[in-house]
Each structure stands twice: as structure tokens, then as C-alpha cells.
Amino acid sequence: MMKHNMVDLKGQYQEIKQEVDSAIQEVISNTSFVNGPAVKQFQASLEEYLGVKHVIPCANGTDALQVALMALDLKPGDEVITTSFTFIATAEVIALLHLTPVLVDVDPDTFNIDPEAIKKAITPKTKVIIPVHLFGQCADMHTIKQIAKEHDLFVVEDTAQAIGADYTCPKSGKTKKAGSLGHIGCTSFFPSKNLGCYGDGGAIFTNDDDLAAQMRIIVNHGMTVRYYHDLIGVNSRLDSIQAAVLDIKLKRLDDYTKARQAAAEFYNKAFANHPNIQTPKTASFTNHVFHQYTLVLKDVDREGLMKHLADKGIASAVYYPVPLHLQKAYLDPRYKEGDFPITESLSHGVLSLPIHTELTEEIQSEITEAFLEFVNQ
Ligand SMILES: *Cc1c(COP(=O)(O)O)cnc(C)c1O
After folding, report:
1. For 252-269, what is each residue's pLDDT tens digit?
2. Is residue 1's pLDDT more than 80?
């Protein structure tokens, strides 16, 4: 048993217990478990928070990405460019739809998809770019959107780790929420995400009326009028109980973000200018909502450090130990070890420390002391 876990969902729940318990009880009492008033209420709250015209709630973040791609009228073999350094879901849905995932390398400072690498990967078959706002900061959306415009491509944002992050366009100076920048934004409400529910959940965002209409049909079995199916769809809905929890937590999301940022600041100070530790760097056009606090270690025995921390009851994690192009399921003759040197070096060097809304300075001191004790030995 760890004393300090990567997240503290129990501690967070204690703070909102009364409100959450009564909202859940209300859903149970009125028995509208699926697509009830709680879902409509949360949908409206999230549309307002993100400043988007349409939020389509769905069952999880992976479905959100799948439904987004299904709405784009693509053919088997069409190419979708995404990052080699992300959670598997991003590439999984591309492959499931018989589209071709085209992977590209990332920026060594932000870990986000490298726009120059996107340019080089474009072919006549390219139809979509999926930037992932990894660990909580936005990818270079201005450049990505320019590339997309030039080549007539769709941009689908994977915002599963960056809900609430602000992106400021370097050209217009306008600030918008992550997920509202491309044609479609996708997110996950998995419990450990920055806005997490008490089970699975997800949502899709867009300002495009036609895409929104299409996606609402797809998540509901391709049904336009009850029992008339115009498209092949899926069954992907957000439960009312989850929506009720999410509506309560959305009101606190900005405070949760501030708590994460304060925790990151504490770590940054403790590790500042250390020759063996690269602290997170945030690009100028975005803020960071720290879904993960991820360091890059230089000349440190990562396994040994993780064991040293674990012995003191402190969790740590590697996101992600294996790049997508080296995953067994995706072994692809187009790719080999060495193709994405930055991703590969990150997969060997990154380490994430506990970051969540309930960290105290006492806990963080304990973590940083244990960490530095090993690194400085
Ligand atoms: C969590 C996550 C997903 C998938 O979300 P689920 O709700 O677990 O399906 C997709 N992409 C990224 C980057 C994620 O972190």
C-alpha cells in the first residue's frame, strides 16, 4: 500500500460528499438513468465553460475519438497523423476504423506533436491530424491549424488530459479553451482525469452544426427518428449519475486546476536547476493544467529511483514506457526502433510524480526529499 498515490480521489470526494451524494440520490429517485435531465444540465454547463456551440456527451474518451472520426466521412486507408508519444486510445480508434495511423515525433520540451514533423508526413491520402494536448498543455495549434488549412485537413483535438487549459493564439491574441480550437475536440472523464467522474465518461465538442448533428446521430445507433437508422452508429452515452457528479465537479474545475498548478510550482522550485532533472516546460501560447507532473531524468537510474520512492510509500509512474510505433499490436513494417528518437528517449527518461487536488506542502516535501535523496546520492 502506498501512502502517497498518483491521485487522491477519496480526499477529493470527502470535500464534496454531501453535494455529490444528494445529486446521485436524486438521479436514483427520478430513475432517468440514461439521457436524463442531469445529462442535459451538464451538457449545457460544459458548453458554457468551454465556449463551444455543441457538447455531445458519450461513454468514454476513446468513443469520443472514434465518433469524431466516424463523422468525417473517411474511407479505409485514409491517413490520420498523430503523435508517437501518447496513450494508446488515440491510435487504437484510427486502426479500428481501418484508417491508417501515421505517427510523428514530438517536441523534446513540451512532449507535444512537432508541427515540422507533421508537414513531412503529409501525403495525398492524409485527411486528419489528431494533436494530443499531452499531460495538460496545448499543442502548437496555430501552426497545426495552418498546416490543416493549407492541405484541407480536419483537426481533431485529443483533450483527454487538458480539459480547462487555455490556449492563446499568437497571431490574434485570443484565448480559448483546449478542445475548442480544431474542428472537433474530444475528452475523457475517466476518474483520474482533471475532470473525472465516478466511472467512465467522455464528451465531444464542436462549433460546427453539421458535424454536431452527425455525431449526435452516431452516438445513438445512427438513429434520426426512433427506430429509423440512417447511418451505422454506436451506443455511446453518458450515464445520468456520472453527469450529475461531473456538473458538481465542473464548478470546481478552475480551483482544481489552481491546486495542481500550485503543486507543480512546489516541485519546480525543489528541482530547479538540478543537472539531472528537466522540470516541465510550458510553451508560450498555452498554460499547463498538469494532468501529469512529468520530469525527464538524465543519468539517473529510473527503476532504482522508483523503487526507492515505493519503499517510502510514494507512488511514481512512467507515462509512457513504450512508444506507439514499438507496441506489439501496432508493429508495422513502416516503422522501426530509431524512427522517432525524441519519443524513444522520452520513454526511457520520463517519470511522473503524484499530482492532484489534495496535495499538501508536507506531503510534497516528503516526496521531494525522498526523490533528491536518491538522485543526489
Ligand atoms: C484517457 C485518455 C484517452 C481515453 O479516454 P478513456 O475515457 O479512458 O477512453 C484518450 N486519449 C488520451 C490522451 C488519454 O489520456
Report:
1. 999 999 999 999 999 999
2. no
371 lies in a domain?
yes
pLDDT digits (tens, 9 = 90+) for 79-130: 999 999 999 999 999 999 999 999 999 999 999 999 999 999 999 999 999 9
In three-state secondary structure terms, 96 is: helix
Q: Domain tally for the chain?
A: 2
Place of cell 452544426: 209
**Average pLDDT across the chain, whole number:** 96
**Would residue 51 count as lying in a domain?**
yes
- Whether 329 shows a pLDDT value over 90: the answer reads no
- Contacts of residue 86, defined as CB under 8 A and 6 or more positions apart, other chains included, come to 132, 134, 158, 320, 324
Look up residue 252 and give its three cell numbers: 470546481
* Cα pseudo-dihedral 264, 269, 275, 279, rounded to 10: 20
Q: How far is the CA of 85 from the centre of ligand 1 (A)?
A: 13
In a domain, 98, yes or no: yes
β-strand pairing of 126-130 with 154-158: parallel
| Span from the CA of 202 to the centroid of ligand 1 (angstroms) | 9
Q: Is the pLDDT of residue 229 over 90?
A: no
Q: Is the CB of 132 under 6 A from ligand 1?
A: yes
Residue 219 structural domain: 9-104+112-250
Cβ(287) – ligand 1 distance below 6 Å: no
Q: At what angle do helices 253-271 and 240-250 cross, to 10 degrees?
A: 60
Identify the residue with better confidence: 112 or 333: 112
Domain co-membership, 209 together with 128: yes
Residues 149 and 225 in one domain: yes
Q: Is the pTM of this model over 0.85?
A: yes
User: Which CATH number do you get for residue 19?
Assistant: 3.40.640.10
Say yes or no: 306 and 336 in one domain: yes
> What is the distance between the alpha carbons of residues 277 and 291, in angstroms, rounded to a whole number?
19
- Please state, in angstroms and rounded to a whole number, the distance separating the CA atoms of residues 328 and 23: 43
Assess whether the C-beta atom of 86 lies below 6 angstroms from ligand 1.
yes
User: Is 289:137 a contact under the CB 8 Å cutoff?
Assistant: yes
Q: Is residue 1 a part of any domain in this protein?
A: no
User: Are both 23 and 77 inside the same structural domain?
Assistant: yes
